[in-house]
What does this fold into?
Amino acid sequence: MSVLFKLGFSLVSSAARNGGFLACSSSRALHASAACRSKDDRRNIILTNRRRDDGTEGEGTVNVDSVIQLRSEMFPTERTPDMLFNGVPFSKVPICNIRVSKNNTIITITDPVSGEARLLRSCGIEGFKNTRKGTNVAAQSTAITFGTNALNKGYTNIRVRVRGLGPGRMSAIKGLQMAGLNIISLTDNTPVSWNPPRPRKARRL
Amino acid sequence: MANRHVQFISRTVLVRNGNVDEAARLLNRILGREGIFDQFRRTRYYEKPFQQRRRVNYEKCKAIYNEDMDRKIQFVMRKNRLEPFPGCI
It folds into this structure.
């Protein structure tokens, strides 16, 4: 860039010596990249490189739109229920419900049509008692035994539906994966309301 | 509340190439950004009106501060200048 600039400068000076009226046009021809020289150019650059406006962050909208655009194939569409997974449509794949709470993790597999629970396992059944139930280790080992049971019963593809927040949230999903189940989708089913009935009074610590 | 939405369409992420971790992180990130986890945690116990007031005021102040600071940082870090190389001939 600097070399080019110098070249242009010498050319300009020689042109100026010759007659003086060629200066501008001759120096302009030597730019290798786009020259940002005037207010108009700047305006053009701003117009062409303008970032997409998602609204003001934190005020009604959040910056999720760009994420959605980046990974649009990871989000379900209206055709997703008919998508086939090993010959089974998405809407008929068995559902694995994970109920996570602060003190326990319960995993069930339900039939997609009738909604009946087919298999159930919780950290308490697994042998963890009292506070140990509410740990990620307990959730993971529960998920692993549950996953092997499910594989023995012939469930390979599952949809996972997680409900609640707690230490077992991520580790239960990981445990299912480690057991060899093929998770095809993750759904959050946490009950959240913006106008709930009055909750219990706050704990006094 | 969640049951009123279409199941497995809303709040759902499909797993791509067996990459469960990526999907889980994406789902958690979106839910966290939209404040769904915050609301869930907040409604476990009753929030007294004075606590609510204090929280809302604090959030307002924080949002104003963050916005101003972002603008300042944008201003200092801007690269699209009228003179691309100020000080050079």
